[in-house]
Amino acid sequence: MSSFRYQLRKFLRFSEEAAQAEGVTPQQYLLLLHVKGSPGRDWASVGELAERLQSQHHSVVALISRCEKLQLVQRRSSDIDRRQVNIHLLPDGERCLAKLAELHHAELNTLSDIFRIPTINTQD
């Protein structure tokens, strides 16, 4: 367990440093990642992002505002429910995320043995 936690922390440190090298904070990178990772659509609601980031709603709103100033994301009212605000990636956000995703993918490949889930034999 210690080795796993150590390698996990190393990966998280890598992620933090990679994001900062691209001019975004680690939280901004995660916000972009979760917007892009929304299943079956190209946006995420503020509430969904708060859940994914495990953050308070008001903190996510402030994070979105900072990302908007960097022209990474855009708020749009929902076509279905005008009370809901959807967050969409802008071209600069897509580019930033694509570069960081490529770096993260390469780093994850170096950790494939460490993050492999062992098979448990329940036949005994």
From TrEMBL:
PROSITE patterns: HTH_MARR_2. Gene3D superfamilies: Winged helix-like DNA-binding domain superfamily/Winged helix DNA-binding domain (1.10.10.10). One of its GO terms (biological process) is response to stress. This is MarR family protein. GO terms for molecular function: DNA-binding transcription factor activity. PANTHER family: MARR FAMILY REGULATORY PROTEIN (PTHR33164:SF89), TRANSCRIPTIONAL REGULATOR, MARR FAMILY (PTHR33164). Pfam families: MarR_2. It comes from Collimonas pratensis. Residues 1-124 form the HTH marR-type domain. InterPro entries: HTH_MarR-typ (IPR000835), MarR/SlyA-like (IPR039422), WH-like_DNA-bd_sf (IPR036388), WH_DNA-bd_sf (IPR036390).
